[in-house]
Each structure stands twice: as C-alpha cells, then as structure tokens.
Amino acid sequence: GENENEPASGKEVVARVGAVLRNRPDTPILVKADRTVPYGNVVGAMVLLQQGGAQNIGFVTDPLDSYPVPE
User: Fold this and answer.
1) Residue 30's beta-bridge partner residues?
2) How far from the centroid of its chain's Cα atoms is residue 47's Cα?
3) Cα R_g (the chain), whole angstroms
C-alpha cells in the first residue's frame, strides 16, 4: 500500500499490476515468499496478479543450500 509497512489491498494490487502491464506488457512478474508464508497466501497473491493481467508469473528462490534437501 501507500505505507510500505502495511500490505496493499487486493484491489490495489490488481490496479497497480494492471497499470504496469498496460504500459509495459513485457514486465516480468515475480513472486518471492519464504517457507513461513502459508501456501494459501501465495496462491491468493498469484490470483490477484492474474486478475491484474499477469499471464506468466515466476518465482524467485533462495539458493539451494539454504533449504534441507532429502537424500
């Protein structure tokens, strides 16, 4: 939102993404969330991005050595 210490509303996310993509449709849309963010919140954010016009959404990940990997 306007206060960077508070989350943007869903309507605000949709409006901002839509405005960016109308002006620059080639803008990459990336999501970064760590393991503490509930899966449903990530999915909800992706739905808002799609409602704003994002057709391709990528993920930003941390280096592999920061996560336990099963052997």
Assistant:
1) 58
2) 9
3) 14
Picking from 30, 52, 54, the residue whose alpha carbon sits closest to that of residue 42 is 30
Distance CA 68, CA 42 (A): 21
Angle between helical axes of 39-51 and 10-23 (0-180°, round to 10): 50
Q: Please state whether the predicted TM-score (pTM) of the whole model is above 0.90.
A: no
Return the C-alpha torsion angle 42, 48, 53, 55, nearest 10: 20
Residue 32 tokens, joined: 């970064």
What is the per-residue pLDDT across 18-27, written as a single tens digit (0 to 9) for each?
999 999 999 9
Question: Coil, strand, or helix at residue 63?
Answer: coil
> Any idea what DSSP says for residue 53?
T
